[in-house]
Specification:
Order of helices and strands: EEEEEEEEHEH
Radius of gyration: 17 Å
Structural class: alpha+beta
Distance between the termini: 52 Å
Shape: flat
Low-confidence stretches: none
Number of domains: 1
Length: 96
Amino acid sequence: MTEVYLGIDLGTTTTLIAKASQDKDFIEVKILDIPQQDGHQGEVKLSYLPSVAYLNRAGNFSVGREAEVIGPEEDPSRFVRAVKRQKAYEKNCGYY
């Protein structure tokens, strides 16, 4: 019997999803593609999801590649990248 495992890495800069299949003594690991909007009205499949987010002034929320493309162009002040790094910096500098 084949056993299947899924793993998710919610990283600071990227998120990955992997699938591992084990059949007796053989293990196969594959990074899965993540379908996402490309920021130009299309879709792209990447092996990672950029850990970024963008909230436009109309209240529309986007993540991943779409946010990475449109956020800095439309309104960089509403674009978020590396939140965990920023929070660690603020904590170490006594901002909260």
